[in-house]
Amino acid sequence: MPFIRGRSGAIPYLDARRDLLAIKAWRQTEWEAGRPDGLRDWYEQSGVCFQCQGHGAVMVGWSPPTSLDEIASAEKHGLEELPVYDVCAICIGTGKSVER
User: Which end of the chain is more exposed for a tag (fewer CB within 10 A), N or C?
Assistant: First the structure.
């Protein structure tokens, strides 16, 4: 499992690749049936957290690099700061939608 730069150290980042053609087909079918067909509807129906889009983490800001690896990464991408993430407050890092 990959990890990303969190406020207090590395946090897991779930692989949440989606098949965009399948999502478009689902939305078209729902629209034709007169049912809610928005992207948020797809996330909820699929059991995926809309807030973090299934990754379990959300970007919360930027900060200067703090380690040699981060400095090298920032220089490689021409950045002075790198993104900082936090565990998704909605799904608490699971990437799954929650009942409201």
Answer: C
